[in-house]
Amino acid sequence: MSADSPVGAPGTPSTDPFALVRTRGYIRLLVMAAVLGVPISVGAYGFLALVDALQPWTYTDLPKALEFRKTPPWWPLPLLAIAGLLVGATICYLPGIGGHKPAEGLSVAGPPKPRELPGILIAAVATLGLGAVLGPEAPLIMLGSGVALWLVRLLKPDMPPQAGAVVGATGSFAAVSTLLGSPITGAFLLMEVSGIGGPMLGVVLVPGLLAADIGSLVFIGLDNWTGLGTF
To answer: What is d(CA 18, CA 204) in angstroms, rounded to the nearest whole number?
Structure first.
């Protein structure tokens, strides 16, 4: 195998995960991780800002606009019903199932397909904005991995599956870079839920942490530039 031959390409017999590290392609993968960290973390910040604005609007501002003196105790019921209808319609009429199945826990079985991303985004915004779920971790992990793989495959459609798995995980690292307060904390979460283990985990960890560090810097900059603060 030559130094430039991609691991997992047709005719390549090697299945050693670290064979990817020994190629010049891995250096390109690290550069790609740094580049991907910027747009994905910007998108993640915008997603969190949207959710942060929707929750007080639906539970505080909207009741006041309807001339309630304070939010009625029954107010969450119609909002949760609307969230259920939106998620149900997303599952029925859009590709995919709107994200992972909550009954199966926080687990990710590879990046979603590009056509599934709108459904995941709509379901996530509906449930988070209307108060149906507790946190944005799972949607951000799926959206980050799906967007990263989609962007890279626009430029390199013949990317090997092994490299695609690394790119998808890198996008997830960038999306949750500061969600738990530190890129390192987010890395531990992703090591548990990414479904990548053994030697392959070491291959993923370096570009993943690089993307998470870039994402952390972007989050800090946006916190100060927009004045919205930390989510």
So the answer is: 10
